Amino acid sequence: MPFVPVDSIDPQRLKIARETLCSVFNIPSLHPFQEKVGLNVLQGKHTMLDVPTGGGKTLAFWFALFYYWQPGCTDEASNKIVLVIGPLVALLEAQAQLLNSKGIPAIAVTSNTPDLEQALTTKKLGQNQYRVGFLGPEMGLTPLFHEKVLNSIPFTKNIINLIIDEVHCISEWGTNDFRPEYRKIVELAARLPPGTPITGATATAPDEVMRDILDVLGLPADTAKVQVSNAKPNVSLAVQQLQNEPDSFADLLLLFPNSIKAPEEFPQTLIYVNDRQTAEKIQDFLRDHAPSCFDPKKAFEFYHRHVHEDRKVDIQTRIASGELRAVSATDALGLGMDFRSIERVILWMKPRTFLSTVQKIGRCARDFTKRGEAVLYITKNMRTRCYAESESLREDVETGNEGSEGSEDEGEEVGHDRELALEEMDQQEGENTEERVDRPSFQQRVSKKKKQSEIQLRDERFLLEFIVTEACRRRVWDRFFGNESKGKLALGVAK
Q1: Structural domains of the chain ordered from first start
Q2: Which residues are within 8 A (CB) of 486 and not within 5 positions of it... i.e. 6 or more apart?
Q3: What is the mean pLDDT of the chain?
Q4: Where is this region: Disordered (predicted)?
């Protein structure tokens, strides 16, 4: 049975949906983009929602549902279903818990779900007893989910929207958050009723990444786009050259205020690193050098993918409560998590991509009425290297050679003398070994860059410019995302 869009939008029902959503979530009003997404769903339109971190994209997921249904309503014809795909089990479970607390029947079907078959049958996700279902892409492709939910007539008759949260995870270009399983979501979409609207949501998708996402999902290039600038005017941006050996972490002492008298005076901080060993070492450094007013084990932790799930949940809870003052972490921490009290983000050494840089900075001062700061710490050696790489890429752009075909010999000639000088600096200054292991050398990348994709090259070019520019770094950010052509987020409305 195909999805049937609304023939004619009822203004009164829209008004009720708007008022109920504001009442349930205790907000004064909705952003225009939140209503626009809901209208697109009702009209059967696929939509890419590109809204900044902390800008309220999740509320846009429920507007179409509230057009049909209100909390407490038992009318069978009103009981529509929204299916949400997300990347993190803990986040899916937290979202389901929040909706249930507000009277919206929801279930997260995850690897933690006890008696999975019962959750899909006796508890009746497939029998239309929930208004929202949360799951990861892996669960959505299991034979059990297909049999108990996707083959169920009550479910297929009432689903109105497939939402892919953090949809940038689909793209393997220019982001550390790439999830191979996400590229298979198209198989799940194919099992839904024909015409079911798909909504993809992200805070970081420049045009070239958006095109890649649409291509993977098999959606047309003219798919509706609802876009809001992801600029962070409330967060200061800086690049700081290390004054001490990176392995000493001595520069991090500057994070402690001079006359700190209580842990609460230490701005809540996320410190992002490129490997788990560094995350653990920074935790130990902060604990060893914290002023006496701290209980170090309560104030500082590390976080990476090898941390046990129970401990991850504990750390997330303590960040949200404000008990933890700083967490040193890899990319495993933060995606989709609503930490509203983070005042400072530190990037320790050069990030792998510009997109991942922006994603991490976006977790700072999610409340746009608050101030925050983001600082990238980098060695003198790596900063010099970035200048050299940036100049090489700039020359390629000016001569029209960026991304063109070329022999490896041609690539090896570019910046050869400069590379030898940089390698000598590596040996003299003791560049962080993890950084050199994780990233290919400049010469290796120069010899291969003509074979790299346009997306990768553009991401690298903007990352280098962000690091070396002597002008405003916001301009680099805004040009990368085309923010000047996007709508602006009205402050003091929905969150």
Answers
A1: 11-227 (3.40.50.300), 235-378 (3.40.50.300), 381-480 (no CATH)
A2: 50, 227, 228, 229
A3: 86
A4: 390-450
